[in-house]
Design a protein that fits this description.
By secondary structure, the protein is mostly beta strands. It has four helices and 16 strands. Helix content is 11%, strand content 28%. The strands form six sheets. Strands 2-1-8-14-3 form a five-stranded antiparallel beta sheet. Strands 10-9-13 form a three-stranded antiparallel beta sheet, with no helix packed on it. Strands 4-5 form a two-stranded antiparallel sheet. The two termini are 23 Å apart. It comes from Tritonibacter litoralis.
């Protein structure tokens, strides 16, 4: 399935149209709308691997599908730990329950952490130093991106029975000493992984979730943006095909006011 050029233009025009309702004085120093290139590897029903390249606006809906794990992150598989960049669709990933699940999809993009988004937000990376979450948790430094969520309850929520197994944005764990923000001055290759069902896997020895957009991610977007997004996933026909979340999530800070734009 390919996307007509008109949809790419619609995505660009969508971002341009937002300027019409903003304060002109605020626009004088504003940057132009941003588009990003996303690379996808998918497992096809016949067992072959499809590799495609997509261009889409730098909306959270798209960026969160690609910016979880940095190049070099080690993922537990049935063949032992494998660097995320070396994984191929069809490889067997070991989930937190010890069960093997087939890798269906791998997304890749490149970000420059020191460059803010079109909305002025930083694409911060989070570095977990050795033993920062307990003995050998992790055993070596683990650096992840803004889309990563860790299956762990933050200290300020512990004791609440409803938060057991909470998938928490990694930024909630920063302590300024052992878990810190980092912004390399050079481009960083980022990845995310999709399995047949939403799961928790070990990356660098820590339990991170696989990709899932969330149950409400596509409810408020336009048809053009929804089509661009679904074109990234050959095994998905609608948002419901991602299935349920395996654990409850803690909301990303600011998401309540960070709704994706819509277009008729």
């Amino acid at each position: 399935m390919t996307i007509p050029h008109s949809l790419h233009r619609a995505a660009a025009n969508l971002l341009d149209s937002q300027a019409l309702i903003q304060d002109p004085a605020a626009l004088r120093g504003a940057t132009k709308p941003q588009l990003r290139r996303f690379d996808v590897m998918s497992l096809l029903p016949n067992g072959n691997i499809s590799e495609t390249r997509h261009t889409a606006p730098t909306l959270p809906l798209f960026e969160q599908a690609f910016t979880a794990f940095c190049r070099g992150s080690l993922v537990d598989t049935t063949q032992g730990p494998i660097a995320v960049e070396d994984l191929l669709p069809g490889d067997e990933i070991v989930d937190l329950n010890g069960e093997a699940q087939t890798l269906l999809w791998k997304g890749r993009t490149t970000i420059l952490p020191t460059r803010p988004t079109a909305r002025g937000q930083k694409r911060r990376l989070i570095s977990f130093m050795p033993d920062s979450l307990g003995l050998a948790k992790p055993a070596a430094c683990v650096v992840v991106g803004p889309a990563a969520r860790l299956l762990r309850t933050p200290a300020h929520l512990r004791g609440d029975d409803t938060t057991e197994g909470l998938l928490t944005p990694v930024g909630e764990f920063m302590d300024g000493m052992n878990i810190v923000e980092t912004a390399p001055p050079t481009p960083v290759e980022m990845f995310h992984l999709c399995l047949p069902q939403h799961s928790v896997i070990r990356v660098g020895g820590l339990p991170f979730e696989t990709y899932h957009p969330g149950p409400d991610a596509l409810k408020l977007v336009s048809h053009a943006i929804r089509t661009l997004y679904l074109n990234l996933f050959s095994h998905i026909e609608s948002g419901a095909d991602f299935g349920p979340l395996c654990h409850p999530r803690m909301e990303q800070p600011g998401t309540s006011n960070d709704k994706p734009p819509s277009m008729a």
